[in-house]
Amino acid sequence: MSIKSTTMAISAAISFALLWVICSATVHFFPEPMMLISGHMVHANLSDMNWTLTWSGFFIGLIAWSGVAGISVWLVAVIYNMLK
User: Which among 13, 20, 76, 77 counts the fewest CB atoms within 10 Å?
Assistant: First the structure.
């Protein structure tokens, strides 16, 4: 059975877009706890930093993360199909 590369890419792009929207909303409504969680995730003290969340940054991040996710999963599916 081969993986449909384009379908997987679109699924990944949509999934990452949804995750980006959820993450951005969480940062907007709960900035301090999200800064603490982000610091723990990268093993750093980010308490002196601030979030910068603008509409343009939101849309650029949405497009960038969705595109990278789609291309990455498409590539994984293509390589998987070649190795079968």
Answer: 76
